Amino acid sequence: MSLGQQLAPHLPFLRRYGRALTGSQHQGDKYVRATLEAIVAAPDQFPRDVDPRLGLYRMFQGIWSSANMDGEEQTSQSDAEGTEAVARARLARMTPLSRQALLLTAMEGFTPEDAAYLIEVDTSEVETLVGEALAEIEKQTRARVLIIEDEPIIAMDIETIVRDLGHEVTGVAVTRDEAVALAMEDRPGLVLADIQLADDSSGIDAVKDILAEFEVPVIFITAFPERLLTGERPEPTFLITKPFQRSTVKAAISQALFFDEATIPAAVA
């Protein structure tokens, strides 16, 4: 099997990581493309002594670290004044390495040992970094959350996680129409949306209707992430895979709010 064939199944999830790390589909996918271009240009530099997925993420980390160490601007001027400006304000109070450790373990499912390899720290440091990320992000961000989920048990679990993080739940919708109505009645600061809803309506369509009225960060939940992470069209920036771990939901919520200007406390803004 060629290297390309070995890496192909992992690309959707690398896109998920890149988007969550940058807070942007465009920027996250841009780093993924740069990673693939680097592998094609110098295949002999791909780590062959580890699992292909681990090697792929290691190459991505090298691209990400190099770009940020060199101070390269990876966004347009308008982006820099918006999303990236928000991120930089928060980065002054939390190291980028801690965010990477959190996403790699909680969202991407790497072991502490693998995460340590990817971000080039001792394994003993990973747990500390993850704890720092969660403590700092959760302290900085509080939001009012709309949940769009038609499975009662899953909805209850998500609601518990959201409340445990200190956020307020504005409502739980099970259909597209109900979701839009709830959003218009009580505007949320974050939306958590399942893809397939009870009446065969779509959470994606519900979100499109909501975003047509006002801007709000969105996290999608799906059992088939590869269908929404092709890199070929406008797609979710933040996405959780079913079945999910509580830590995954917490990491996604924290990261989505991290890039949302409306949640910046006065001391940071």
Automatic annotation (TrEMBL):
The modification 4-aspartylphosphate is found at D194. It comes from Sphingomonas insulae. PROSITE patterns: RESPONSE_REGULATORY. Pfam families: PhyR_sigma-like (PF22233), PhyR_sigma2 (PF22029), Response_reg (PF00072). It comes from the Bacteria. The gene is phyR. Residues 144-257 form the Response regulatory domain. Keywords: Phosphoprotein. The lineage of its organism: Bacteria, Pseudomonadati, Pseudomonadota, Alphaproteobacteria, Sphingomonadales. CDD domains: REC_PhyR (cd17540). This is Anti-anti sigma factor/receiver protein PhyR. NCBIfam families: PRK09191.1.
